[in-house]
Amino acid sequence: MKGQRSIAKVLMVVGSLVLATVTLTKAQDRHDHFNDHDRQVSRDWYRAHHDYFHHDEGRYWHRAWEPNIRAGFVLTPGMRAAIRPAPAELIAGYGPPPPGYRYVVIGDHVCLIDRGYRIHDVLHFELNF
Hints:
single chain, alpha+beta, Nuclear Transport Factor 2, Chain: A
């Protein structure tokens, strides 16, 4: 009986380690920057949906904002009012953002922002695509 209990304990520990490794690997798949795969997904999506973006100055875009759409910038209250969620099919191509982050659209840009509205990365559709 003692031998069976010891084997059961060892199997439980090994199973826990395997589960922890799988969970850690999945967590590492989430990234706080766009990668080459994300850029390719964006190019493919943009070819069929370029009208989704508002190219005219107005409610969703002001030219004066352009220099600020970069990693590290915290969106102003006016810019926050203009952001829209990124399209679901585009997000599906990227995969889920890390906890506390989200993908948003502002003007011709898709940004990865955190809860504090800080931009962590940006895809400039008018430049890259």
